[in-house]
Amino acid sequence: MKRARSVKDAVVHEDPDLLIDDIAAAVRAGDDHRIRLLVERLKEIADIPVLMRLRRRLYDAAPLHSR
Length: 67
What we know:
Radius of gyration: 12 Å
Structural class: mainly alpha
Helix content: 55-70%
Distance between the termini: 35 Å
Oligomer: single chain
């Protein structure tokens, strides 16, 4: 299991799937600072399939009127 690391006051996971979950939650909450931290970490470890999973997750979570 990949360990999480702490960035200031926030835990940032090393597992891309957990990062995607956290990014989706931060987007729902409108937490720009947290989104920035998580995306910065994700870009260091993500490959194309991970980015496509993030895209799908965010698209699926979007309200129907914004699609």
